Amino acid sequence: MSVTGIVVSPGIAFGKVLHLNFYHEKVDYRLIPTNQLADESKRLKQAFANQKQYLEQSLSKLEADSTHASLIEADLLLLEDEDLISEIDATISKLQVSAAVAIERIFGHQADELAALDDPYLANRAEDVLCLSRRLIARLNGAQHINLSQLQQDTIILAADLTPAEFAMLPLEHIAGIVLNSGGVTSHTAILARNAGIPALLSCQYEPANIANGTEVVLNGVDGELVIAPNKAKIAALSSLKQQDEARKQQLFMLKDLPTQTLDGKPIGLLANVGSLNDISHLADVGAEGIGLFRTEFMLMNTNTLPDEKAQYHFYCDALHLMAGKTFTIRTLDVGADKELPCLASMQEDNPALGLRGIRYSLAHPELFKTQIKAILRAANHGPIRLMFPMINQVEELDALFEHIEQCKAQLIEQEKGFGELSYGIVVETPSAVLNLQSMLPSLDFISIGTNDLTQYTMAADRTNPTLTKQYPSLSPAVLTLVQQTIDIAHQNKVRVSLCGELASDPKIAPLLVGMGIDELSVNLSALLEVKSALRNINYQTCLSQAQHALKLTRIDELTHYINGIN
Ligand code: PEP
Ligand code: MG
Fold it and tell me: The organism sits in which domain of life (predicted)?
């Protein structure tokens, strides 16, 4: 038996299934009949007791004064708080609601009170309180806690969804593949899986009840299928496919030190998208010329404390050391929407993708922004850094950012700390950034087109919603037109254009982008050599004609068909 899905990270993986139930947190708001209230009260106490026992066991395995241990201790204090339990219990009977609703309500109040405090440590604690409440609700809904650190064999994770923060918690050395019900090529979990080189299938509509934990499966990330309990013939066929896949990787490896240029010698910048120091240490494995996008928020996904200026400064200095003078493009924190950081208190928003995201979050929290900027300015004393800002829509935002940057420089001078000059850019990822580009270019040294969000905001289609991912891909007439418009405006103003969305990582699409005039592509580490191979095997003239032809097509299916038909 097999089910299909979208390949977001290629490769063949053999392994055993483990279901992760991160999303057992649904709350049913219907009123409870009075004769069932006593049972709800019992369930509440049981959930508290089970969670307490689980945390005590985890605590016994940790070093006493580690940060992790102190966080667990803080959660235990809440679980032992008799007044809190009584308040939740009283809410069940007073409002006639389930234990889950009462927990959500009372923990929510606690979190709001903490978030409103001036003390940043306590404000961060608000997120921990909400996290504990989600875990309790998951328990009430029957979720089992799995100790991921004990995974031994090659595991294929199956889950409804996985946030980037949850991905960061996975022991990747034991994970052979990932299969999710949700998400698409440009979702952040897909991007993380690809960068980690873990085969992943998203938007895969398997039925969890039909696949028990421990079932042998093969994730076929070439043809986009999950094969459940394969027979001998299927295993043999997929093993041979895996061998071919590995042989292809070996072949690509030979291109590592060759220049990125078309057959007729047109050079193209080919850089990498990364999210950690570990990724940076792998740049040389694929011969990347530098970093075109460093997603700084990814390195904060599994930490509960925000690094201070000094820690960030050391981090960027380490990165510069590894880069050894190559292009290093840092994007300032791009938090919000699906990228929630456990170390930052975030407000609940009805429409987070349209809310306090990217640069809006930074402008709303200038101290957070300035801490990062000061660390980067100081690091720039030790090597060249290009800095870019996510989700910029209009020139006023840039003005505000540059004002903060000037203040940071003044503070550094006052504190007698040295700093270097930066090159500045923006990620063009909203239609209004394209429309307002002309007014912003005078203050910019470069721009980078973020087609993942540009697609989401042009098509008004949530990039994480599995029902929309096929219908609204980035390769669409609307997005290509905006990309062309961006390139033309930037080039008229002599500003270089990079493209760092997932579109660039597709070896069939990269030549087309070059034909449209893109100067530089920034791609996933795992796709870099495939893209290089595609560019080295095509004439620039062919890139130009592909672009000309593609830009005339008015339908998504025509475009897809055209691209799939190339070679
Ligand atoms: C993009 O939106 O295209 C982009 C590169 O940024 P991210 O995927 O991190 O939102
Ligand atoms: Mg983006």
Answer: Bacteria
